[in-house]
Design brief:
By secondary structure, this protein is mainly α. It is 74% helix and 0% strand. It is built from five helices and no strands. Helix 1 packs antiparallel against helix 3. The protein is elongated and about 90 Å long. The model has no long low-confidence stretch (mean pLDDT 85).
């Protein structure tokens, strides 16, 4: 690994730990937001009702930040080019965080919206596992390349 790859892996390791911790905060903010919901106005659709709930704003904001961080982690994994597994799992995490979470946040379709929670828990689990793997991998001994021997 050259110095750019080592720097990208260090960045990845810190971002994935922050990401996993922020996922726990994200679940807390979802619960806090749901239990802070105010009554609906007359004639308001379910979608309009949830769009106007200010108690969910911190959850929405952190979700957007998590999506950006997931894409940054994927880019760092591409720079590291450590192994295909790291790239594939980080890509899947970025897709789930940035695409699926938006696709599943449909309050007018509760059966689809329920997948938003399931996807969020799987994102937390994947992020935690990737954080563990990134830091465990740092403790593994990586053999250095043998020095070139020049004939005398």
């Amino acid at each position: 690994m050259n110095s750019i790859q080592r720097g990208a892996f260090t960045l990845y390791r810190y971002l994935i730990v922050l990401f996993a911790g922020a996922c726990v905060v994200q679940i807390f903010l979802a619960g806090r937001g749901v239990f802070g919901i105010r009554p609906a106005a007359a004639g308001q659709s379910v979608g309009e009702f949830f769009d106007h709930q200010k108690s969910l704003d911190p959850h929405r904001a952190l979700g957007e930040i998590l999506g950006i961080v997931a894409v940054l982690m994927f880019l760092a994994a591409l720079v590291v080019w450590r192994d295909r597994r790291l790239i594939a799992w980080t890509f899947g995490l970025a897709v789930a965080t940035e695409v699926l979470q938006h696709a599943f946040a449909l309050p007018d379709h509760p059966w689809v919206a329920g997948l938003h929670v399931v996807s969020g828990v799987s994102i937390l689990g994947t992020g935690g596992w990737l954080a563990y793997d990134a830091w465990r991998g740092a403790r593994r001994t990586v053999p250095e390349a043998a020095p070139a021997v020049t004939p005398a």
